[in-house]
Amino acid sequence: MWFPKRTAAFWPLAASDQRHRILGRRRDPTATFTPMATRNPALKALRRHEVPAWWRDAKLGIFVHWTPASVPGFAPVDGDVGDMLTSGDPEAMGWSPYTEWYENSLRFPNSPVARHHREMYGDRDYRTFVADWEAGLASWDPDEWAATFAATGARYVVLVSKHHDGYCLWPTTVANPRRPGWNCARDVVGELGEAVRAHGMRFGVYYSGGLDWTFDDRPMGTLSDMIRAIPRGDYPAYAAAQVRELIARYRPSVLWNDIAWPAEGKELWPLFREYYDAVPDGVVNDRWMPWNPLAGAMRFGPARKVVDAGARKQATRDAGLIPPEPPFYDVRTPEYTSFPDIQRRPWECVRGMDQSFGYNAASRPEDFLTRDDLLWSFVDMVSKNGNLLLNVGPRGVDAQIPDEQRERLAWLGEWFGANEAAVRATRPWVRPGSTTADGAGVRYTATDETVYAIVEREAAVVTLSDLDATATTSVTDVDGAPLAWTVTAAGLRVELGSGGAARSAPVALACRDVVARPA
Question: Is the pTM of this model over 0.90?
Answer without folding.
Answer: yes
